[in-house]
Design brief:
The structure holds three protein chains of three kinds. By secondary structure, chain B is an alpha+beta fold. Chain B is about 30% helix and about 25% strand. The chains are: A alpha+beta, B alpha+beta, C alpha+beta. The interface between A and B is medium-sized, with 21 and 32 residues.
Chain lengths: ~280, ~775, ~150
């Protein structure tokens, strides 16, 4: 459990960090995935650039009617942010469901989403929120939507030399109900399945719904078939069941020692229904 | 000198643990904390294959790597003795267990080479450069598969993979079965577990060539036995070796052993003439420290219509792993001893077959054979109750050995010391509100909800044990030294390592001598300081080690009174409250004054030596037999199959309680590990012998947030075996727990026709039942 | 671990069979493959670099093709060893014309066993299944694009 030799730099500015990345260094945020892999010698980066020292990446703020979350905001920062709890409770709820206290203190949203573990919690919420990701290179800057950001397991739209600068999520008003429902794998705390729901109801009918699913397959995805089935419905128990039943449709479900593909698909349906019910109950 | 008489007493009170401040402030000294000038570091290269022939090992590149001092392989260490198996029995096949593999590897994790460098990073880098050419061979990881014809032979010289067999008959089991109204049969497994001490193992060895002295610091439960056996492996005189067990961060039986690395580090230090440190990584811990359990049991219970148990048959398949460690073949024999539980039946038959597999050796893990046995009999009693449509509480009451029958000889050859088995069950039923719960259960069933009530009434074998019944002596030792200033130093041979005896032994001493807790220091774990001792395991430290202490204190009390009487010029004195008091005049001498006089020795009582030191080696006449009743109430989530523990009621009888706080802690910790087995933990090997739950990301250890509230209660039936009346409580929680949980879940699912479930009760396992039966 | 699945290659079975046996094509299609070197009839030495998230592992091993029955089936055996563990896979690939499509198409069905050992097996359980699927998909996707090139 001892890493190979590596160089370590903690730059003070983003530009400095980007220069180092351009020369092949690997970014280190909270280290909750990278450090264990290095200790097991499954990963052996030669040069680490520690982003946690970059103060200007650690923020949660409202700007132009949206919420901007800096890449090095910790899960605890997000879970406990009064701003997020009020204006994007789904993200705060998701952060609170990650791992354990120690992981939430150290881990960052940027590190988590850039790592793109297929069982990580955030991607479900970020798909449902249709989040946008600001990617910064030494000489470039671009913004990518969640649908394009999560490519497959451990693969995102980030190009070599690019850094995730911030995540942008919309402000959900009180008419929007949200919920994240998860079954945690007992050893790792990762999601065996996690489902995020955002829903609005207008004159008794579902006027808007977004569903994000994590843990089920090689990437977090939006369950569009479920969304279509739910939109315009009265959100009766039967409507919920019908929509939830579609949440895993066409998905090649993962299977491991903790849950078979069939069980995962079943859990996705159960947790989708729970997320629908909870989200609906939270509409003020 | 006037000293106030101390009247405060400590035994029986919730005295806070004196060892905790250093543990919770991070100032305790573990093996890893030991630093020495010139320290070198060892990294062990281990086999990634479960079975392979070693064609060659090329260490050249590693030897030339920066900072590397040397690399040793099995060729170099051929002169070192084998890792010992401490058990002698007929037909026991003991493979030669060299400290480094020579021509073959037998399990993933098998040590192949050791790299020594001036820092551990360089040592690890160099280990990556060793090139081992393996010819991979077929492996077998499942003990039942290993017994089938044509299975790969773990050790080629024994193609049937049988490591040992053991048979025990008690009473007349054939007659019992022939006359039975009903026979219930069940295959019951107790899965392999990883003991997972928070502190992994570690060794620092320091050879002092000029003195011909080897100091070994190792995280062990048995420093003296390690010294005797490792000195033997190294060909070193025992008195040239000193073993120190510094703070030990959990053992649970996994450190009740003698490991290859303990001798290997001694060998390395003697070779390089420098101190060397090896600290086991968590990854290594999974595949190089013993595992526990690993049973496949086939039970048959014969009974009458009224529920009276007539006899029990058990065919026990023990997954041995690739080698015998210190006590491996003994563990299933403990299961057999315990197989009747606390029920009155004199007819038993047990057949054990120990099976080699290409896995880590199994050995003692909290309870060591007794959780497996209790799980078996407690499941079987529930199966019998279900078969006869009897209430599981009623069938237990019917079969308990009754209070007036103690001491009670069992069919397995034990003599239960004392017991009152109905009382804890009655108490637990009352506490949980059994009658009401059964009504609620009936109502919930009508609503399609699954709630279960599970009972386990366990017995166990503690205070191990009489020497005749143990492989290396079952006594324990204590030395009490009262210093010239009257302060007291205890040296216990038991080497407690977290169980709290630094506190309980001080409580006993303070009460016996009438001093304060702070006047007493307890020393353990250093063979150069402490007289020979056996160690802490099998819930023995207090019951056996505490008794040795008690008798040493009696010796000193007599001597104190003798000196006190001399000083007071009286013939009628008592020792109380730290004073020797002349019963006639009321004059007194404090312990400090008396102690000073014994060392100053200006005047000595007749036939009395100076000083106040006493050592006792106490041989127990019997084991002790604690017991209890655990009741678990579970609710099953019908959508996901998840088990929620609504209530956990534990009524344990461990005899007299010296410190209720510590007893509760032991119960809580024991229950946590029992829940781990019942619900989450499993060491899973794939067909090729790869341990696929090889990290804490996949091996689901119980966590604080998963723990239910444990309602811990007691009854008290003192043991007649020792003057303290104590029995031991270190393993009770683990032993009582798993059958209560499984019985509860089976009870919940019984409307679906479920009769038995094997552990761990994962949600998917339960969901599959719900999905197919509903 | 059992591995099975199907993939539709957009070429006729004869062509599909040919590309699946062509070392140059295989070298380009196997994810992370850094080259195949012929060491015997239908046997190749392979160097492979697996990059997955932060994980990076070099593997050296062999690829063997046996039981050829052109153009309908063959057996593929892959073995690799590296510092972080070893992998071994053996599978039967069956090719059949896919008549459900207008253009020439071959349905490749594969079924086999994969074995992973060492550190990867001990710590990567959660990810092995998904990763294997992903790598097989990448392989066939690449093969599909290569097979349609001349």
């Amino acid at each position: 459990m001892i890493a190979q030799k590596f160089e370590y730099t903690a730059p003070k500015t983003l530009d400095e960090a980007l220069d180092l990345l351009a020369s092949g260094a690997k970014p280190l945020a909270g280290g909750m995935s990278l450090i264990p892999m290095m200790k097991l010698r499954l990963a052996a980066p030669e040069h680490l650039v520690d982003l946690r020292a970059l103060r200007d990446l650690n923020y949660i703020r409202e700007e132009g009617g949206q919420l901007h979350i800096g890449a090095t905001a910790s899960h605890y920062d997000i879970e406990s942010s009064a701003l997020l709890r009020q204006k994007c409770p789904l993200l705060a709820e998701t952060a609170a469901a990650i791992g354990d206290v120690q992981v939430r203190n150290m881990g960052t949203i940027g590190g988590s989403v850039a790592h793109a573990d297929p069982a990580a919690d955030y991607p479900a919420a970020l798909q449902a929120l249709e989040a946008r990701f600001v990617l910064k290179g030494a000489k470039s800057a671009r913004t990518v939507g969640a649908a394009d950001f999560f490519v497959e397991a451990f693969t995102t739209a980030l190009e070599p030399g690019e850094l995730l600068r911030e995540v942008i999520v919309p402000i959900d008003d009180a008419r929007t109900g949200t919920s994240y429902q998860k079954m945690a794998q007992p050893a790792s705390g990762f999601a065996i399945v996690g489902v995020s729901v955002r829903v609005r109801v207008n004159s008794g009918k579902v006027s808007f719904v977004r569903i994000g699913v994590t843990g089920l397959s090689n990437r977090a995805y939006r369950a569009t078939a479920s969304e279509k089935a739910f939109e315009g419905k009265a959100s009766s128990p039967a409507d919920i069941q019908a929509a939830a039943a579609l949440v895993a449709q066409g998905v090649d479900a993962n299977s491991d020692l903790h849950a078979s593909a069939d069980y995962r698909r079943h859990l996705a349906v159960v947790h989708a229904a729970r997320a629908f019910r909870t989200a609906l109950s939270r509409i003020v | 000198m006037a000293t106030a008489t101390k009247t405060e007493s400590f035994v029986g009170k919730r005295v806070r643990r004196r060892e905790d401040p250093r543990l919770i402030t991070g100032t305790a000294t573990y093996v890893e904390d030991i630093q020495m000038p010139g320290m070198h570091y060892a990294v062990i290269l281990r086999s990634p294959h479960a079975a392979a022939r070693i064609r060659s090992i090329n260490t050249k590149e590693a030897e030339g790597a920066p900072g590397v001092v040397c690399v040793f392989t099995g060729k170099d260490t051929k002169g070192v003795g084998a890792v010992p198996c401490g058990i002698v029995m007929p037909d026991l096949r003991v493979p030669q267990h060299t400290i480094l593999a020579t021509d073959r590897v037998y399990f993933v994790g098998h040590p192949v080479a050791v790299v020594v460098a001036r820092d551990r990073y360089l040592a690890h880098d160099a280990a990556d450069l060793i090139d081992v050419d393996y010819e991979v061979l077929p492996a077998v990881a499942d003990p039942e598969k290993a017994l089938t014809k044509g299975a790969p032979a773990v050790h080629p010289q024994w193609p049937d993979n049988v490591a040992f067999t053991y048979h025990q008959d008690g009473g007349n089991v054939d007659q019992a079965f022939a006359g039975a109204d009903v026979v219930v049969k069940q295959r019951i497994t107790s899965q392999r577990l990883v003991p997972m001490a928070m502190e992994t193992r570690g060794v620092v060895a320091e050879w002092r060539g000029a003195d011909r002295q080897l100091n070994v610091y190792t995280s062990t439960q048995i420093p003296h036995l390690v010294r005797t056996l490792v000195a033997g492996m190294l060909g070193l005189e025992e008195n040239r070796m000193r073993v120190i067990a510094p703070e030990v961060g959990g053992g649970f039986g996994s450190k009740l052993n003698v490991y290859a690395e303990e001798a290997l580090m001694g060998y390395v230090s003697m070779k390089i003439q420098k101190p060397v440190k090896w600290i086991e990584s968590r990854r290594e811990n999974f595949t190089s420290t013993i595992h526990g359990r690993g049973h496949v049991d086939y039970y048959e219970v014969a009974a009458k219509h009224d529920g009276t148990i007539l006899g029990i048959k058990l065919k026990l398949i023990q997954d041995v792993g690739s080698y015998h460690q210190l006590l491996t073949p003994l563990i299933p024999q403990l299961s057999v001893l315990m197989m009747p539980g606390i029920y009155n039946t004199q007819n038993i038959r047990a057949d054990i077959v120990g099976v080699f597999t290409n896995c880590v050796p199994t050995d003692a893990y909290r309870g060591a054979g007794r959780p497996e046995a209790t799980h078996g009999i407690e499941r079987m009693v529930d199966l019998l109750a279900a078969e006869l449509k009897m209430d599981p509480a009623e069938i237990r009451f019917k079969n308990f050995v009754t209070k007036e029958n103690f001491p009670y000889p069992t069919a397995t050859g034990l003599m239960y010391d004392s017991g009152d088995y109905a009382t804890p069950l009655k108490k637990a039923l009352d506490l949980v509100g059994y009658v009401k719960l059964r009504q609620e259960q009936a109502d919930l069933r009508k609503q399609g909800k699954y709630m279960g009530i599970g009972i386990s009434t366990y017995g166990e074998i503690c205070a191990i044990g009489p020497s005749a019944a143990t492989p290396a002596g079952g006594w324990e030792s204590a030395t009490v030294k009262i210093e010239p200033s009257g302060k007291v130093t205890i040296m216990t041979g038991a080497c407690p390592h977290g169980q709290g005896e630094e506190t309980t032994f001080a409580q006993i001493t303070a009460d016996e001598l009438g001093v304060g807790l702070d006047d007493v220091v307890v020393i353990r774990g250093d063979t150069a300081v402490v007289q020979y001792g056996i160690g802490t395991f099998g819930s023995r430290a207090t019951a056996v080690g505490g008794t040795a202490l008690y008798y040493a204190l009696q010796d000193l009390k007599a001597k104190i009174k003798k000196f006190g009487a001399m000083l007071l010029e009286s013939e009628d004195v008592t020792l109380s409250g730290g004073q020797v008091v002349d019963n006639k005049t009321g004059n007194s001498k404090s312990l400090q004054e008396v102690a000073g006089a014994t060392y100053r020795a200006l005047k000595l009582p007749p036939n009395t030596e100076p000083g106040l030191v006493a050592t006792r080696f106490w041989e127990p006449p019997n084991f002790t037999f604690p017991f209890g009743a655990h009741i678990v109430v579970t609710d099953i989530n019908e959508e996901t199959g998840q088990v929620k523990i609504r209530r956990y009621v534990a009524v344990d009888d461990c005899g007299n309680i010296l410190n209720p706080l510590i007893v509760d802690g032991q119960v809580h910790g024991g229950v946590a590990q029992g829940l781990g087995q019942a619900l989450w933990e499993q060491a899973v090997y794939d067909d090729n012998g790869q341990l696929i739950t090889g990290e804490l990301m996949d091996y689901a250890l119980p966590r604080a947030h998963l723990m239910p509230w444990i309602e811990s209660h007691h009854t008290c039936t003192p043991s007649p075996v020792n003057p303290l009346g104590v029995k031991g409580v270190g393993e009770a929680g683990t032993i009582g727990c798993s059958p209560a949980v499984v019985n509860s879940v089976v009870d919940a699912l019984s409307p679906l026709g479920v009769k038995h479930l094997d552990m761990p009760l994962t949600p998917e396992k339960i969901w599959k039942i719900l999905a197919t039966k509903n | 671990m059992r591995i099975s699945g199907t993939y539709a290659l957009p070429v006729a079975p004869e062509r599909a069979y040919q590309v699946l046996q062509d070392p140059a094509t295989l070298a380009r299609a196997i994810p992370g493959c850094e080259g195949l070197e012929k060491i015997g009839p239908d046997e190749y030495r392979m160097k492979m670099k697996v990059l997955l998230a932060a994980l990076s592992g070099q593997f050296e091993g062999k690829v063997r093709i046996t039981d050829q029955a052109a153009p309908s089936s063959f057996r593929l055996i892959v073995e690799g060893t590296g510092r972080i563990g070893f992998l071994k896979g053996e599978g039967l690939l069956k090719l059949s014309p896919d008549n459900s499509r207008a253009a020439a198409s071959t349905l490749v069905s594969y079924e086999g066993e994969a074995q992973v050992g060492g550190t990867m097996a001990a710590v990567g359980q959660r990810l092995i299944d998904g990763t294997a699927k992903m790598m097989i998909m990448k392989f066939f996707d690449k093969l599909a694009s290569l097979s349609t090139q001349a």
